[in-house]
Amino acid sequence: MTVPDTTSYLDENSDWPTHGTYEYSSYYSSREQVHVYEEAATRLRLEETSFDYVVVGAGPIGAALAYRLAADNPSKQVLVVEKSWSEPDRIVGELMQPSGCQALGELGLTNVFSDIGAVPVHGYYLSYKGKHTYIPYMDRPLPASNKEQQKKRQQQQKRYRGVSFHHGRLVMNLRAACKAQGNVYCVEGSVTELLSAKGRVDAIDGIRIGPSRSTPETESRTTAVHPSVLTLVCDGITSRFRKVLNDTPVELLSHFCGFVLEHDAVDSSEFFGSSTAAGSMAACSSPVEAEKNPLPMPHNGNVLLDGAGPVLLYQMSERETRVLADIPGASLPSEAGGHLRAVLRASLAAAAPKHMYPALHKRLMAQVEAAQRIRCIGSKFIPATANRIDGALWIGDALNVRHPLTGGGMTIGLWDVVHLTRLLKRQSLGGSTDQRAVRRVVAEWQWRRRGHALVVNVLSVALHALFAAETKELDLLREACFAYLARGGACTMHPSGFLSGLLASPLLLVYHFFSVAALAVWMRVCGASSAYAGGNILFRIYSAVCTLYVAASVILPLIWQELRP
Length: 565
Prior knowledge:
This protein is of the alpha/beta class. 37% of the residues lie in helices and 18% in strands.
């Protein structure tokens, strides 16, 4: 099967330009709008100004939120506090799903991917046990009434697309939009405390700000700020204030270990050798090779399932590819004794065997040895908690976290911003705001975000459980999942919709998950599974029932945690 040549438009999406000029590019590196807390003038301004909104954190969610609040309410004052306004450097948050792109469009940030070398993404390539399949993103709906418009749309790229990029560059573009707003006051400092309202433990009425780097001489030099409407906590996955809302202990699911491969640019994505049907499964009878780019399928997410955990590869630019290897379990092998590199080397060698991916295998092995430091990040699942604290709202990863395997974190965070800013604009809150009106906004916001967040969050953790496959039953489910995705039609495109965030149907997610489980049961009973083989018919029936139980124990507790009040 051959993926259509993309040379003519270089995977460019007219709706989502990744090349061209960004309207706020002059603010990208500008420090003129950033006020350092240690300066006396900054502290004086904080004491004298009455702010309507305070945003804690200027990551992708905090910056987008501050921009939209300021643009919707020119008369309102928005304070954004960030520890460092320099370009961040992270190994996740580098792929935006199509639904996340839609959210950015709703926020008025259509051109945010320009000027940062971003690469559009068409879908996912999956490899498992010598076979591979392709899961493209969903088709765009075409208008049925206007034939001329329909013909024009058909001539354009018809599928939705995501975008991959350098995380820090996207954040700086979002901050540039934020800094360009005249009613946003950007402070480089550290929020040391959320201030409780007098006489109440369930209400926040402001924050306390201190220097970014505290010293014995400056640690007592802090300023309290009390917004008239809301304090919005957007300090990300490592939020220091999440425990105020949710103090439940969190266990790590796994670790992503990452590094970068450098290569020449690629002009097209060639994969299979026959039909273009999505979901077709083919055996790797000859090495999958690319002269300029070692990826099995450039301009797509590449997921290799034969390692210790899933191995994810995607381009951050035309000449750079991020490699993320999942190491299951809460503990990580030691880097000091070389144990981490040994585990990583074995996992990558199994995921990208030399006989199938010679160029990729060679580069992966060389980079594991050459990398001065293997960067790692823990993966965890933190379900959303109902916001019962007046005066403050937690948004994005500060509220809930999912496994980064599916790349859905920013999508959920940005839709959180879309829903919230729409509701705040409709209510026109301000001045001595009635907290009952704010509570109504928060309650409706939590309801609106729930379905979308549930699908993306549950899918990420459930899919990781299957792809990491630490038991025979999970290994069987992984094999069935791969076979199910390769069937084409709804078996391929509905899961594609879940991955992309475009299909936010919890019931449909449950249906497809248990369809995979039913296929696993059939494969086990009929002896068609290579992942879980052997045994007489009675034992196969017994183990198939156990597999169905394991499937239920994977997804149902996750759904309950997302739905509980």
